[in-house]
Design goal:
By secondary structure, the chain is of the alpha+beta class. It is built from eleven helices and 22 strands.
Length: about 400
């Protein structure tokens, strides 16, 4: 904390001498009250970011002074305190982030993350323009319309635009440069879509879970109850290419598959760990019903490399509880971010916890969830044109036994 106190003293001194500071022999002109107020506001936000890193980030910075100089020098290669998932958004960028969580925005339908100073595709949203054009989980976006990307928000802003217009995305896919043309659309994310599949034993329900947004728990529960009312008790839950979303929404859905006393996840923070068992989740979400609403239904979960974050919490916990999981290894994003509004209207998205899943408290970060039945992704081109879906076929086979 000594370095942090010194920083605040530096900020106070800076504003105390702003009107008459001199560097060498060159005197700065007087600073107007408007400029002074603006600088003060920005420096306050800068100090707030350092304070949050110091107090609540998952891994405490080893050298807070080095962290401050990294920010001041704007040298992203130093990496003295920022992990690969934390990010700062300007006031304008914060609005983009908020719009995405609300479930409707314009663009190409792509979930991305900044990792090791690269903009990496977590997953194209199933059925969205990016998905249909062939963008894949793990692609590294290097250019948008032929111009190099500066950072994740630069890429996001330039990929958005008027519906019906095209954008060229250049990606590095395992060392090979690929240019993909995508036509923008209004992206409205409906959390789930449902259909039924007939087999020799009757009807199987199929629910595609696309994202964990604010609407998911209500939509998901309604679809499951509707299937049960129709006598359908075998269900396939498809989390492939689901990039995650809101933590509490994931826990509320997962609660309905847990037995009383089951651990959904453990949240490991810097100085403490919190067990999210069924009792804790029921209390925090003020749920009126008991856990395990859908335990009487036979369920198989589908996953792939595009399944990340909240999807991995669901798949990892249900696997631990004995549900069959079919597909390929997931993305491996086992840390969560706290979204913190700053005083100047900007937003800090700071990694503050790691989640361990299920009763076994299994680590996911940088590892992913391994399926119980590994089947190679049937759609290597991420095309909407489905040939045979071997993962889906395996799920049907398991439910037909």
């Amino acid at each position: 904390m000594k370095a942090l106190r010194q920083l605040f003293i530096l900020v106070i001194m800076l504003f105390g001498f702003l009107p008459s500071m001199a560097f060498g022999q060159t005197n700065l002109p007087s600073v107007s009250s408007e400029e002074r107020a603006l600088i003060l506001q920005e420096m306050q936000s800068f100090a707030e970011i350092l304070l949050y890193y110091s107090r609540i980030s998952l891994d405490k910075p080893t050298d807070l002074r080095a962290c401050a100089y990294e920010m001041l020098r704007m040298k992203p290669n130093e990496q003295s305190c920022r992990d690969k998932h934390s990010a700062w958004y300007s006031k304008e960028e914060a609005q983009i982030f908020k719009t995405e969580l609300e479930g409707k925005f314009g663009g190409i339908g792509l979930e991305v993350s900044e990792q090791d100073r690269k903009v990496v595709v977590i997953s194209p949203i199933d059925g969205a323009p990016a998905y249909r054009a062939g963008l894949k989980s793990g692609d590294v976006i290097t250019k948008v319309d032929g111009e190099p990307v500066v950072n994740i928000m630069d890429a996001v802003k330039r990929m958005r635009g008027k519906p019906g217009t095209a954008v060229e995305i250049t990606v590095d896919r395992k060392g090979k440069e690929i240019i993909i043309r995508v036509v923008r659309e209004i992206i409205t994310i409906h959390a789930v879509s449902t259909k039924t599949i007939n087999d020799s034993n009757g009807v199987i329900g199929y629910i595609k879970v696309k994202t964990f947004n604010e609407n998911l728990p209500k939509e998901f529960r309604e679809e499951m109850l509707d299937l049960r009312a129709k006598g359908v008790i075998r269900v396939i839950l498809d989390f492939r290419n689901n990039p995650g979303g809101l933590l509490w929404q994931a826990l509320e859905v997962l609660y309905d598959f847990a037995r009383p006393g089951d651990i959904l996840m453990v949240m490991r923070e810097r100085d403490q760990s919190t067990i999210f068992d069924t009792a804790h989740v029921k209390k925090e979400l003020e749920l009126k019903h008991e856990p395990g609403m859908f335990r009487d239904m036979r369920v198989v979960i589908l996953i792939n490399k595009g399944s990340a974050s909240a999807s991995e919490i669901f798949a990892g916990a249900t696997k631990d509880w004995g549900f069959p999981v079919v597909g390929t290894n997931t993305f491996g994003k086992g840390v969560g971010q706290t979204t913190i509004p700053l005083s100047n209207g900007s937003l800090l998205r700071l990694t503050t916890f790691e989640f361990l899943v299920g009763n076994s408290k299994t680590k996911i970060n940088d590892i992913g969830v391994t399926p119980t039945h590994e089947i190679v992704d049937p759609r290597p081109s991420s095309s909407e044109t489905l040939r045979e879906d071997k993962q889906l076929e395996k799920a049907i086979e398991l439910l037909s036994r």
